[in-house]
Specification:
By secondary structure, the chain is α/β, with parallel strands linked by helices. The strands form three sheets. Strands 8-7-4-3-1-2-11 form a seven-stranded mixed beta sheet. The chain has a three-stranded antiparallel beta sheet with strand order 6-5-9, with no helix packed on it. Strands 10-12 form a two-stranded antiparallel ribbon. Helix 2 links the parallel strand 1 and strand 2. The mean pLDDT is 97.
Amino acid sequence: MAAILLDLQPGDEVIMPSFTFVSTANAFVLCGAVPVFVDVRQDTLNLDERLVEAAITSRTKAICVVHYAGVGCDMDAIMALAKAHGLFVVEDAAQAILSTYKNRPLGSIGHLAALSFHETKNVISGEGGALLINDERFIERAEVVRENGTNRSKFFRGQIDKYTWVDIGSSFLPSEIVAAFLAAQLEQAQAITARRLAIWDQYATWAASMQTQSHIRAPIIPADCGHNAHMFYLLLPSLERRTSFIAQLKERGIGAVFHYVPLHSSPAGCRYGRAHGDLAVTSDVSDRLVRLPLWIGLDEHMENVLAAASAALGA
């Protein structure tokens, strides 16, 4: 919906990280736009704001940031760049519900933002998501786009005597059952986040004790960011070490997985997008990152998980 609302035309460019899920790029490619992949920062693994301006061309229409692991990008710098160049900013806040940047909720800063309620997220409805609109220019058209391109909402409000097809769109509405499930989750969102943070903190304490001897790196949270414990990951010294680590945990019945294959090196990424620079950090972290299990109820298994992880690291 965000991509449709930006009225992207074939050949328009959207700057984004390569270290993200395919949905980030697909949304814009479906409108004919070209994803321009920019490298990520070494600390947060978010879009490196220092590299964005050099990637801007006369075809650039928007910057799409991804708040990786629920940790905010440097939104002040991104918004300043967008204002200077007349660009829109879309926040891919799929992982970032209840996370903050300088005490502002992620998803409330760019012109548009998207949340995800996929089963892997903190607050879930199985599938689905939400569009957050922070620019009033998009509100009326968004209402039409989400209702199959019709002015049905105006009809229900009594503003028109019948509704009809007025724009492009699709059916973006959740079913009532899905919405009811999500409503209950949202009521418990603060409690869910608190429990996840408690698990995340246990991982962080353990990782700090292991960091020097095992040459691992835990997530880095900037001082001006409040995260939601969406994910706890480690950066291991090499691809070989990561492969061995995952295999050893699997032998003990513990699921630890790597994350994204960089979009700029994927077949569709090469076909529909282009890379700006060599994206060395993206390629490096993609080979070395491993995600540890983090879900409500993991609390009672933490001793076993940490013991297995320590053994897999050779400690």
